[in-house]
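Lab notebook page, bench 4
Experiment: in silico fold of construct C2
Operator: M.H.
Input chain length: 140 residues
Purpose: comparison with the prior construct
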Amino acid sequence: MVLILICVGAMVLQAGGPKVADEFKIDSDAKHFKNATKKKGAPAYELVTLTHQKHAEVYGDGGYGCKKCHHELASDDPADQAKAKKCSSEGCHTAVANEKCLDLENAMHKQCYKDCHKTDEKAVAAKAPKTCSKCHVKAK
């Protein structure tokens, strides 16, 4: 049994850490928004799609690693990657997490748009979306 666990662990490390869905929708409940409220009624926009695999390939191996987005990690070591949390995980970017922590909406706009898509050299070269409508598609 121990040998099996060692082999599985070695395969995860060799593969560069845990695998995550290629794309997923960023969704969360009200506690992740300012004042712990979410707008009521039909949404005007579809949920934002995060292309995790593309980000990992373009930026992960390109010198940034997972820590660029998953700033709670101590390092980009593959063993540490298994500890990566979603932004909407309990205690991360919730409106009431702490006074210094941004709510999810503001954290995503700061980290993704202002600090990366708009100003990061690699993101600019990769033509990362720089307009609201590229990430926030109107609902049908």
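Observations: Residues 21 and 76 are 19 Å apart (CA to CA). The longest strand covers residues 24-25.
Next step: discuss at group meeting.
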